[in-house]
Design a protein that fits this description.
Layout (H helix, E strand, L loop, with lengths): L1 H28 L9 H8 L2 H31 L4 H15 L6 H18 L2 H21 L2
């Protein structure tokens, strides 16, 4: 299971930023305005140590558990009635849209697919929760370091 978690994390880390970068270039060429950073990352960069610790715990513990329960367990289960491919793609589409960050849509779609693959491969929701938590920890830490 750890192998699947770290393989998923490696895929997300390698592919998602590339997808986001390419999509941002398309948005710029089309003159579609967008925020450069997700609101959460803006909060992290402006946070003092106490606020950062709270944001980090929320983003690395509570959010992955809540989102994985909602998307992998509930939504995927509901959409599975339409077939596995529709559930797989539909869950990833809704996951990316739910984050409300236009430049991140393709990267978040890919991340949603990877989390679903981790969940389906291991048949263990905790594996996708851990993968999600590790990804969030990396993103939050990098945002704080570049503030």
């Amino acid at each position: 299971n750890w192998k699947t978690i770290f393989l998923g994390l490696a895929l997300i880390t390698a592919v998602s930023p590339l997808l986001t970068f390419c999509w941002q270039q398309i948005l710029e060429v089309l003159h579609i305005p967008f925020e450069q950073e997700q609101g959460l990352l803006q909060l992290v960069k402006g946070a003092d140590k106490a606020a950062f610790c709270k944001l980090f715990l929320l983003t690395v513990a509570a959010v992955p558990l809540a989102e994985e329960l909602m998307f992998r367990r509930c939504l995927y289960g509901l959409l599975l009635k339409s077939g596995a491919p529709a559930a797989f793609v539909g869950t990833a589409v809704i996951f990316s849209a739910a984050h409300g960050f236009l430049p991140g849509v393709p990267g978040l779609f890919f991340i949603g697919m990877v989390f679903q693959i981790v969940n389906n491969t291991t048949r263990n929701l905790w594996c996708s929760v851990i993968c999600h938590a590790l990804h969030n920890a990396i993103v939050i830490t990098l945002a704080a370091l570049t503030a």
